[in-house]
Amino acid sequence: MLIKKRIPVKRMIKILIITAFVGVVFVLLCNVLVVISTRLQSHFSLESLPSNDVGLVLGTSKNTNEGKENLYFKYRMEAAAMLFKEGKVKFLILSGNNDSKYYNEPLDMQKALMKLGIPETALILDYAGYRTFDSVVRCKKVFNEKDITIISQDFHNARALYIAQHEEINAISFAAQDVPNGYSIRTLFREYLARPKAVLDVYVFRPTTTLHNEVLE
Predict the structure, then answer these.
(1) Beta carbons within 8 Å of 118's beta carbon, 6+ residues apart
(2) How far, in Å, CA of 46 to CA of 39, rounded?
(3) Predicted confidence (pLDDT) per residue in 118-163, tens digit
(4) Rounded CA gap, 2 and 34, in Å?
(5) 59-77 confidence digits (pLDDT tens)
(6) What is the 3-state secondary structure (H, E, C) of the chain?
(7) How far apart are the C-alpha atoms of 170 and 164, rounded to whole Å?
(8) Distance of CA 35 to the CA centre of its chain
(9) Tens of pLDDT along 90-125?
């Protein structure tokens, strides 16, 4: 009869502490890696921003969970419109989530940008940008664009640029206006965890990206 050995409580606690420590260090290192390796491609002013034919606008919900206007969305649309009007981009790929007929980020972005004076002919809707990884990869695989300007808030741009670097896409970014301090702590916390996921995606997981571009109606 086999006798199962129990792991002593002290040893179990020690293993948990070491595991947690390694996890925290991994998250911190990935965040530092993503930020440092992309800072030369990050731009904060029109004067320093090179021109590209195509801008990639990363999607987000137009409203918060409370039904209020989402400032991340508002500022991204304003930044995208400004780049177009200043001649920094000629076309805008609006990439976001369209996982049901009731939720359509690309269409919301199109409507917002048209209200800001951007012609519909300059707007390309990407309905399968479910994640930042998808949005970046699909620029190359679906829309055949390898030279792009990524448009989002700075913290988000870093991760998108990192993915682009490893997908052989020549990308730069323009930082949309940031939201006030404390506006969404959850979003920033999620980004700290998303960066290690991006590192694992480009080196380990290599997730499959859908190649269709159909709106769900």
Answers:
(1) 80, 81, 84, 85, 92
(2) 16
(3) 999 999 999 999 999 999 999 999 999 999 999 999 999 999 999 9
(4) 49
(5) 999 999 889 999 999 999 9
(6) CCCCCCCCHHHHHHHHHHHHHHHHHHHHHHHHHHHHHHHHHEECCCCCCCCCCEEEEECCCCECCCCCECHHHHHHHHHHHHHHHCCCCCEEEEECECCECCECHHHHHHHHHHHCCCCHHHEEEECECCCHHHHHHHHHHCCCCCEEEEEECHHHHHHHHHHHHHCCCEEEEEECCCCCCCCCHHHHHHHHHHHHHHHHHHHHHCCCCCCCCCCCC
(7) 7
(8) 13
(9) 999 999 999 888 899 999 999 999 999 999 999 999
Are 194 and 132 contacting, i.e. CB atoms less than 8 angstroms apart? yes
Torsions phi, psi for 184 (to 5 deg): -150, 85
Question: Which residue's structure tokens are 């972005």?
Answer: 109
**Fold adopted by 36-205:** Rossmann fold (3.40.50)
User: pTM of the full predicted structure?
Assistant: 0.92
Residue 8: predicted pLDDT: 81
